Amino acid sequence: MSTQPIPAQPAPAPDDEPTAPPAVPLLAPRDGLPPVIETSTALVEYAEALAAGSGPVAVDAERASGYRYGQRAYLVQLRRVGTGTGLIDPIPLPDLSVVQSAIVDAEWVLHAASQDLPSLAEVGLVPARLFDTELAARLAGLPRVGLGAVVESLLGYRLEKGHSAADWSTRPLPEEWLVYAALDVEVLVDLRDALAAVLEEQGKTEWARQEFAAILAAGPPAPRADPWRRTSGVHGLRSRRQLGMLRSLWQARDELARRRDIAPGRVLPDAAMVSAVQADPRTEAALLELPVFRGRANRKLVGTWFGALTRGRELPESELPLHSRPGDGPPPVNRWADRDPAAATRLQAARAGLAELAATHSLPVENLLSPDLVRRLMWTPPEPRDAETVAATLRAGGAREWQVELTRDLLTDALDRA
């Protein structure tokens, strides 16, 4: 894929530090804005063009997070050399298997792939090979890894990111939004090539290959246990009874949001739920006195919300949620020194060594090795505490081979600290 020429860097003035040339704004797709694909005939034609194209395929999806329930894709963008950009509306075309067949053998290029893969899978798009430009930028040690920042750093273009949080379920989609969406895949393959060159120079190509393979092998994320515990402000609730009331209210909100296809926070904000639990109103009228519940929409739903609070208040003690969800992992790190000083010493040594190693290889420490895996290893050391056993434990915990090779000796030494 060709790119627009980037102006040559001007020579610095005497005694001045060299400065990068100003970024070139990308304001319109180089081939013009393509029409949105909304019919089966147009979809088949574009799929045939994709199959006849060459090289990797840039892929992106736009969702309506914060507006709609779930993470459904409301626009799918693709671009390939010899094909051009396609903007597909998955509302009238919920099955994109014809596109899947056309590009199944190609490498797909996405930015922050884990965010888009679930919504793409819902419409039948699942890559067999992947290059994640966001993850590649992390491995390359770039200071900022957002798409706009990486494009500007490596390609010299400036992407306008003003519509990333828009309600993409809007129909018809405004032309300026479609331009934004098309530009998100405009230089994605160019960015892939630039990052691949950096990783090759740094000796990290194999690291990236293993990381991308791990994303594909992971599959869709498992449903969260007790998702209501992620309510903002939940830590302000002190009793199990209050937690039971919040859970009941959260479930009522989630059911209503799912049925209406509205983001739960737009049905009832987290802060309003926590405030209602803390106020513990004993009548619908008392509930309507609280902020947010005075609004017209929530006045109509006062029976739903009050009923949920009442159900939570009347739960038997045995059915109330615990203060924290039982887990199989170690306790919070701030309790280690009291509960197991030796484990705290081991973790301190491991963290210090990993931070130094990550700095040596110019990558974030969390990409060197999962912090959760490190905590588990230091809290419950394997036996025997040798490099071979540590390596096996890391592999069982999901570490990639490059991570195991880099960290096993360091972590084995940390396990000897007491």
TrEMBL record:
<keyword id="KW-0540">Nuclease</keyword>
<dbReference type="Pfam" id="PF01612">
    <property type="entry name" value="DNA_pol_A_exo1"/>
</dbReference>
<keyword id="KW-0378">Hydrolase</keyword>
<dbReference type="InterPro" id="IPR002121">
    <property type="entry name" value="HRDC_dom"/>
</dbReference>
<dbReference type="InterPro" id="IPR036397">
    <property type="entry name" value="RNaseH_sf"/>
</dbReference>
<dbReference type="GO" id="GO:0008408">
    <property type="term" value="F:3'-5' exonuclease activity"/>
</dbReference>
<dbReference type="InterPro" id="IPR002562">
    <property type="entry name" value="3'-5'_exonuclease_dom"/>
</dbReference>
<dbReference type="Pfam" id="PF00570">
    <property type="entry name" value="HRDC"/>
</dbReference>
<feature type="domain" description="HRDC">
    <location>
        <begin position="239"/>
        <end position="319"/>
    </location>
</feature>
<dbReference type="InterPro" id="IPR012337">
    <property type="entry name" value="RNaseH-like_sf"/>
</dbReference>
<protein>
    <submittedName>
        <fullName>3'-5' exonuclease</fullName>
    </submittedName>
</protein>
<dbReference type="InterPro" id="IPR044876">
    <property type="entry name" value="HRDC_dom_sf"/>
</dbReference>
<dbReference type="InterPro" id="IPR051086">
    <property type="entry name" value="RNase_D-like"/>
</dbReference>
<dbReference type="InterPro" id="IPR010997">
    <property type="entry name" value="HRDC-like_sf"/>
</dbReference>
<feature type="region of interest" description="Disordered">
    <location>
        <begin position="1"/>
        <end position="30"/>
    </location>
</feature>
<dbReference type="GO" id="GO:0000166">
    <property type="term" value="F:nucleotide binding"/>
</dbReference>
<keyword id="KW-0269">Exonuclease</keyword>
<dbReference type="InterPro" id="IPR041605">
    <property type="entry name" value="Exo_C"/>
</dbReference>
<feature type="compositionally biased region" description="Pro residues">
    <location>
        <begin position="7"/>
        <end position="24"/>
    </location>
</feature>
<dbReference type="Pfam" id="PF18305">
    <property type="entry name" value="DNA_pol_A_exoN"/>
</dbReference>
<dbReference type="GO" id="GO:0006139">
    <property type="term" value="P:nucleobase-containing compound metabolic process"/>
</dbReference>
<dbReference type="GO" id="GO:0003676">
    <property type="term" value="F:nucleic acid binding"/>
</dbReference>
